[in-house]
Amino acid sequence: MFAPLTSLWRGYRDSSLILRVTLALVLGAVVGLVGGPAVGQALAPLGELLMRLLKFIILPIVLFTLMAGINQGQAGRLGRIGRKVFLYYLVTSALAIIVGLTVASLLSPGEGMSLEGAASVSVPENPGILSVVLGIVPTNIIGAFAEQDLLGIIFTALVFGLAVAGLRQSQTHGELGERLAGLIEALNVVTLKVMSGILHVVPVGVFAIVAGTVAEQGMGTLLSLGDMVVVLYVALGVHLLVYIGLLKGFGVPLRAFFREARTPMATAFATQSSSGTLPLTLDAARRLGLSRGLYGFSLPLGATLNMDGAAIRIAISAVFAANVAGRRWISSACCRSWSSAP
Known about the structure:
By secondary structure, the protein is mostly helical. Helices cover 80% and strands 0% of the residues.
């Protein structure tokens, strides 16, 4: 009786994840256009379920992956890794701003549009560097978990991971340290097992999110901002070429990289959330054979601090707003774009 359903499930389970996600993107767009808002509202709970599942698994994956990586002989490398990661994020964020401003200046989105009916808004004050640095240290560990504070969780994982590594080297508490390291490794394996189950529902959630978004916004909204959308995707394409150049420069095999990166990229496109896509990104890094200490530290940090897509969007929006207002953007816009990028 259930043989057809079993065969269907096996075919779904054994097919490529990127194939399932791509089909979900296409089908979601079609269903959203045809079905309209009613279908979008009906499918919304499925999309919300996916986002909740991804956010549910983010923190344990970050915590146990980083702690396990530190206790695999990588504790001494964290300082060197951290310096390189921060330098890389600084350079790529600057490149994202430059690409966004350059492409927007060449294509001039918003030129000829008027500001009739526009309302004035107050500009929020940017937080200082000191407050950002102090914000990395959570005042309450439980609060950091409850608020899904990735920087706070990374700090917590570093502190406790290094503490366990120190216990393992202690003459008096070495056995306790080994037991704790074994427990962390076991919890990491369990977390990855849970993650593998969540991956099966990703295409369903992507389908629901895309269908709901298209049904709610419709093609009219997209067409009304057509020039802005075109400029954004041209800039993203240029920035992708910059990354491809960096990958080739560092000797990374492009075919293997994009074979694993394409699923997180497609999911990020649908969910519009780098943090929500983080579990898939971590899984892709694991499949590429990267060091757990490296990707466990750099990827959660990058999902919070190195959002190049957001930086490009902010830069283009600054030029778009200047063109609509009939003003030429100046160098200060570049600085504000950089400092405002998440």
